[in-house]
Amino acid sequence: MSNRTITYLSNACLITCVVQNNLAETVLEAAKNSGAQGATINYARGTGVRERLGLLGVTIDEQKEVIRIIVSEDQADLIFEAMFLAGKLDTPGKGIMFMTKLDRVATYIPDAVLNSIE
Question: Is the pTM of this model over 0.85?
Fold first, then answer.
């Protein structure tokens, strides 16, 4: 067996933001300006709410962009708020977002960073 170890990070949160098509870059830019290091963006198709809100005269595109960002608990509230405001999620039909506390996160961490933490 090789001499490999797993370094687990704790105190991390996953922010998931589902927005209308073509809004992900704006939301991601706000997250980065607030301290986020990067994100994963996927494309999706929404159902359900489109029909209900369409009755109110609000047209909602079924094409969605899903942004996922892992951040430390210390940064989570600031980044969450920046993303919410950038995506105009206080407007009907723009999207939804939520935050989940992560039990464990593992990825490559350079030795220099690990040594500076210890």
Answer: no
Q: Which residues pair with 71 in a beta bridge?
A: 13
Residue pLDDT tens, the chain, 118 long: 568 888 888 899 999 999 988 999 999 999 999 999 989 999 998 776 555 555 555 555 678 999 999 999 999 999 999 999 999 999 988 899 999 999 999 988 888 877 887 6
Residue type, 76: A
Q: Which fold has domain 11-102?
A: Alpha-Beta Plaits (3.30.70)
